[in-house]
Design brief:
Pantoate--beta-alanine Ligase, Chain: A,domain 2, 11 helices, 6-stranded parallel beta sheet, 39% helix, Rossmann fold, 2 domains
Length: 276
């Protein structure tokens, strides 16, 4: 596997390589990331893994400073899963002196995470637009855990006529249901135990839908109650359309239940899709 640091090098590396697959990451790889790399390997002629902790999408300086970084470990895991290129640019390479352009997506980026983290999705959309332009992949692989990010990226790709197809893979979970996240390492043993309430709450809501419940408010309360029993207060529990992220009152088709909560000092997100 080749490690490259700048745009000219990654473009030279993929030139004439056939079908290019890109896996966007901020590092600290877990099985969720590795599943994306394996999927790209199975579907593409050349696999590029993007490794960049994007400063413009962080709202808290402490969160950026404390974000786990281990490029040597990540490179070894990427190579083991079949990546051909690890593209790990510096901040200066992504945002050179004089950089003055921001990509904003209205609507889907304005609610939930967008409302709680002002500027977050502008940072996401800008860096993803740059990443896709730098590499020029036929397909980019994202995980479903960051559902709103996926919706924002899909909207941007469609609106700007970017020729990359966005492929979304299911959430990868621990044996007890906790969604895999690079931030999970920050949980102490008690917090790690309590964090399983996120998935329990979501699965309780899905079971209620299977049993005939259609009222979104009832489903949200089921999730909130499960969190409360574990001593966790949700920042939000939203029952929404999976494409527009507009609120849903009655479940009439595929619907997303999304949540965010702090377990101790660690902020976690999760979601589940339900349907009548």
């Amino acid at each position: 596997m080749k490690i490259v640091r700048d745009v000219a090098a990654v473009r030279a590396a993929v030139a004439g390589s056939g079908r290019v697959g890109l896996v966007p990451t901020m590092g600290a790889f877990h099985e969720g990331h590795l599943s994306l790399i394996r999927a790209a390997r199975a579907a593409c002629d050349v696999v590029v893994v993007w490794l960049f902790v994007n400063p413009t999408q962080f709202n808290e300086k402490s969160d950026l400073a404390g974000y786990p970084r281990d490029e040597e470990r990540d490179a070894a895991l990427a190579a083991e899963c079949g990546a051909d290129i690890l593209f790990a640019p510096s901040v200066a390479a992504v945002y050179p002196a004089g950089f003055a352009t921001t990509v904003t997506v209205a609507g889907v980026a304005d609610v939930l995470e967008g409302a709680l983290r002002p500027g977050h999705f502008a940072g996401v959309a800008t860096v993803v637009a740059k990443m896709l332009n730098m590499v020029g992949p036929e397909v980019a692989f994202f995980g479903a855990k960051d559902a709103q990010q996926v919706a924002v990226v899909r909207r941007m790709v469609a609106d700007l006529d970017i020729g990359t197809r966005i492929e979304v893979l299911p959430i990868v979970r621990e044996a007890d249901g906790l969604a895999m996240s690079s931030r999970n390492v920050r949980l102490d043993p008690d917090e790690r135990r309590r964090a399983t309430a996120l998935h329990r709450g979501l699965t309780s809501a899905r079971a209620a839908v299977t049993g005939g419940e259609r009222d979104a408010a009832v489903l949200a309360r089921l999730v909130q109650d499960e969190l409360a029993d574990a001593g966790i207060a949700a920042e939000y529990v939203a029952v929404i359309d999976p494409d527009s992220f507009e609120p849903v009152e009655i479940i009439a088709g595929p619907t997303l239940i999304a949540l965010a909560a702090r377990v101790g000092a660690t902020r976690l997100i999760d979601n589940i899709e339900v349907a009548p």
